[in-house]
Predict the structure.
Amino acid sequence: MTRQKIILTGEALDIGRWSDWLAEDPACGAVAGFTGLVRAAQGLEALELQHHPVLTLQALERIARDATGRFGLAGVVLAHRHGRMAVGTPIVHIACACGHRRDALAGVSYMIDMVKTRAPFWKREWRTDGPHWIEPTQADHEAARRWMEEKT
Amino acid sequence: MTRQKIILTGEALDIGRWSDWLAEDPACGAVAGFTGLVRAAQGLEALELQHHPVLTLQALERIARDATGRFGLAGVVLAHRHGRMAVGTPIVHIACACGHRRDALAGVSYMIDMVKTRAPFWKREWRTDGPHWIEPTQADHEAARRWMEEKT
Amino acid sequence: MKLHFEFYGPISDRMGGAGFSLETDAAPQNRAALIAWLSHEHEGAGALGDSHIQIAINDELVRTEAGFDLSDGDRIAFLSPFSGG
Amino acid sequence: MKLHFEFYGPISDRMGGAGFSLETDAAPQNRAALIAWLSHEHEGAGALGDSHIQIAINDELVRTEAGFDLSDGDRIAFLSPFSGG
């Protein structure tokens, strides 16, 4: 009976509204969240996130389902932008609600680690000198692998 | 140059506004948060949080300062209610902003663990059969101790 | 001299409320002596010996192993183990 | 038969765009043969051999070790390593 919202959109993320929605469940004493935003950098004009028309949403759904089972979550929000975004724009928002803080926080960590390397997105920075693809870092790959190894 | 808001109040927490405020810093690509709420339970009518008129705010300030130094945070919100609260009411809200997700998430975990056992609050449930003091759990004590041991 | 006692959290139930004041000519100079004296005056005070209870003098936490030097009008607070969040 | 190719992420730069279509009478039946054939047709296609690039056929990820059986009109997508969030 998990409450969940999985959103893939080209529009601005409506973060406040989802947090309120998650906190409505009186059985949940803990709501943890994460928002990733376009970070200012020298010469950065915009960040572009490309996605796959079918596989990306499927991957987000699978990540949310896995987190729900693994951490016993009562509520999940996983929202991801695509398209071109200015500095300061939210790219991804994740929130987990459940009875206790440990599981809510772990659920958020798990989902952001998975979204970084296991969801079909491709990130491109538009800088003053042109476009540059951004690859996930080695640390990103290791973070995802660690979760796979410590199967609960 | 950390931006910070430390709030101890008997009024409802204004969570959405602080999250927006934290996300305003364009140097921060990551904002993590946690909200603890009064969880519904059989016979629970209200939760009461008592505090100390001087020491409680000092402790919150110290916890935020320690987290800022330890995780290199660029922005911190630590807000805690006192008084009597109905089921579903936010008790504590924590948010951390910084360049990268790991530190933001760790900062939130650290602060909630510390708030549970190192800030002078006393929690009392008002149930249909009267008031009951709530002690921190063994797990709460261990969580706080772990942070002390793994000094960075 | 007059000393003011404050009780926070569960210990306040044992002490019958949030606080009281006492007069003395010979103020106790360490935690054990303080609790022994309070136990004379109040039957629940034995519970104050719990090592998890912290003491603050005039709104400042003190390490009580070293003893302390109380003055007229001091406020001594006994803080039950914390449970926030 | 006609096959449609799609390229996602950095690999699309190497392949000169988001995709193209090709005709063949003998469809390749495994990843190595597919890339060898594409390399004939397009000079950037060697880069598709990178083992981190995943393949989806008709919007379904496939494990390419086992080989595959392509049909007329199939869409074969090459997905560069993901970088979300």
Q: What stands out?
A: The first helix of chain A runs from residue 15 to 23. The radius of gyration of chain A is 16 Å.
